[in-house]
Amino acid sequence: MTQLHPVIAEVTAAIADRSTELRAQFMRRADRYKSDEPRRKKLSCANYAHVVAASTDTDKLQQALDAVPNIGIVTSYNDMLSAHQPYHDYPEKIRAFARKFGATTQVAGGVPAMCDGVTQGRPGMELSLFSRDVIAMSTAISLSHDAFDAALMLGICDKIVPGLVIGALSFAHLPIIFVPSGPMSSGLPNPEKAKIRTMYALGQVGRDKLLEAEMASYHAAGTCTFYGTANSNQMLMEMMGLHVPGAAFVSPGTGLRDALTNAAVERAAKTAENSKNPKRMADVIDVRAIVNGVIGLLATGGSTNHALHLPAMARAAGYILTLEDMDKLSSVVPLLARVYPNGAGDVNHFHAAGGIGFVIRELLSAGLLHGDVTTIWGEGMEDYTREPYLQDGVLTWRDSPEKSLDETILRGVASPFSPEGGLREIKGNIGRAVAKVSAVKPEHQVVEGPCVVFDDQDDFLAAFKAKELPQGDFVCVVRFQGPKANGMPELHSLTPGLSSILDAGRKVALVSDGRMSGASGKVPAVIHLVPEAMDGGPIAKLRNGDLLRVDCEKGTIDYLGDAAEFAQRANALQPEEADGVGRELFAHMRRSVGPADAGGAVFW
User: Fold this and answer.
1) Which domains are delineated in the chain?
2) Residue 555 in contact with residue 327, Cβ under 8 Å?
3) What is the separation, in whole angstroms, between the first and last Cα of the chain?
4) Where, in this chain's numbering, is [4Fe-4S] cluster bound (predicted)?
């Protein structure tokens, strides 16, 4: 086995050391709830009668037997979201699969699944980040009946998978497997879609052309095909050993997709808590799995949203993961993939070129990934270097391609797109933030100029349309967008306008205590800034015309004026708290949420 890179070993050890007591508490809880007999046997007769009241007579007889595992299903199904619509018939499919393996299944509960693509620029987006923590709590409620020997998590998109992970980790005494449903087929090429969005922002095409392009892009059941948060989630579940190997990017409605779901059910049955070889989630998600997740994010140029989600997931598993950890890992993990918005190809093209199996094998061969981990499938990451296929209708695996089948999308460690990963910690006298630089050209990574300050993205859009922005280089500051201010909505509506300014030959950067979409791209964006404006961070003191320097190469952001005068300034007035569209129901979460660099969670 190739020796682990010393920086990866150092970061892993540092996380483990600072988290010693926290992880010990987590493991004590997992051990306390461990059981060698079916959990339902601990229920009173009346309790148990409620569990099986609606089951068939056959399932009732099965569930009464000690050796039969009962598998709980937590589903995020709804038929408005393309990624989750395929889950409609999964419970019945899973039930039929389980019976073949001597197991029973029950839908333990459902979790909400909202779409950031639908709520972009709308009030509902202010509920989005907190939906992750609601999903975690919904997962806990679903499994709280304590009637299951294993569980399957059905979820795909932005906050759903991180929420399911956080919730499931409260039941880490159980074996838990994540079951994806796959991406839709490729539609309108992403560069063409981006071009039409920019043309619409400039008033060069009408809404009819924009809608036509969007409908041609998002056109069928399955995950959106750009490499945003949803598909980054699926990569993470492979990297962290929570999927059946190779399950992430197989399209819905195919025989291979059904076979992979079948394999997940079989694995849950064979590794259930009351089986001969139980495989608890607590033993799968350790510090090495967390670090592998970060490495996967860096190597593939994944979503900046995971700078929020990974620390929150790590904390649920008893680990403290910092932006500094991610930055150190980024310095040694090469960028092996360019998938839109980092490149022209989508996840289907990435998968066809060699996909996650190729990435994992390349990282292992260079000592850039922990190979000695426990996964839901077995021991070690070697299983995840292979790709699934059907041979005469039977699911099997083969080695992923030795070489990338398309080097414009996927490369090996010998010739990466960049020697460093795509995520960087940014620090300076304005605060601490994160930036994704994998899609930002080198000539755009340093921006110095006056700032233009907005307290709402709609104010920027109005100034852009009215041609009231500076004609030279500038820094766009959008503040009061952090978790405490308004729930930290994505600011993706800024992207077309800022991109058009960049395309016109000027330099522009975004600085915000808010977050961007998982599709954030070519504009340098310094986001998740802490302390946020609502906490009295320096961003609240900025005024139009203040000179700022954003340097993504060095990882710095600085106010270049008189420091003493700046310190004496009063903070900008906080905007009125918005309500309506459910936002008033989340006021208590805004008051209790933690900072963005710790995951923006309400639990810790």
Assistant:
1) 6-185+220-399 (no CATH), 423-598 (3.50.30.80)
2) yes
3) 38
4) 157, 224
Q: Which two tokens stand for residue 411?
A: 């490369």
Q: Tell me the average pLDDT across 515-533.
A: 87
Which residues are 556's β-sheet partners? 427, 551
Instruction: Find tokens 């915000």 and name the residue.
Output: 512
Tell me: the pLDDT tens digits for 145-191?
999 999 999 999 999 999 999 999 999 999 999 999 999 988 787 77
Average pLDDT, the chain: 93
Residue 155 CA, chain-centre distance (Å), reads 12
Half-sphere exposure of 602 (CA within 13 A, CB side): 22
CA atoms within 13 A on the CB side of 500: 20
CA distance readout (Å), 240 to 134, 297, 314, 436:
23, 11, 11, 22
CA angle 355, 225, 312 (to 5 degrees): 80
Burial class (CB in 10 A: 0-12, 13-18, 19+), 288: buried
pLDDT of residue 276: 85
Give the start-end residues of each E strand in 161-222. Answer: 176-179
Element of type H or E holding 390:
strand 386-391
pLDDT of residue 518: 60
Give the position of tokens 């320097």.
549
- Describe the strand order of the beta sheet including 104-110 as a list of residue ranges: 104-110, 70-75, 150-154, 176-179
What DSSP character marks residue 97?
H
Contact criterion met (CB below 8 Å) for 126 and 158: no
DSSP, residue by residue, 37-60: S-GGGGS-HHHHHHHHTTS-HHHH
Q: Where are the beta strands (DSSP E) in 111-209?
A: 150-154, 176-179
Facing residues of 481 across strands?
none
Residue 7 CB neighbours (<10 A) = 14
| The pLDDT value given to residue 261 | 98
Lowest mean pLDDT among 56-65, 330-339, 398-407, 420-429: 56-65
pLDDT of residue 526: 96
Residues whose CB is less than 8 angstroms from the CB of residue 274 and which lie 6 or more positions away in sequence, other chains included: 35, 36, 37, 38, 66, 67, 69, 149
Residues forming the annotated binding site for [4Fe-4S] cluster?
Answer: 157, 224
pTM above 0.90, yes or no: yes
DSSP string of 417-438?
SBSS-SEEEEEETTEEEEEE-T
Distance CA 293, CA 298 (A): 9
| Known binding-site positions | 157, 224
Given a cut of 70, whether residue 519 has pLDDT beyond it is: no
Question: How large a percentage of the chain has pLDDT more than 70?
Answer: 99
User: Can the peptide bond before residue 531 be classed as cis, meaning omega within 30 degrees of 0?
Assistant: yes
pLDDT digits (tens, 9 = 90+) for 241-259: 999 999 999 999 999 999 9
Pick the closest to residue 559 from 572, 573, 575, 545 (CA basis): 545
DSSP secondary structure letter of residue 562? -
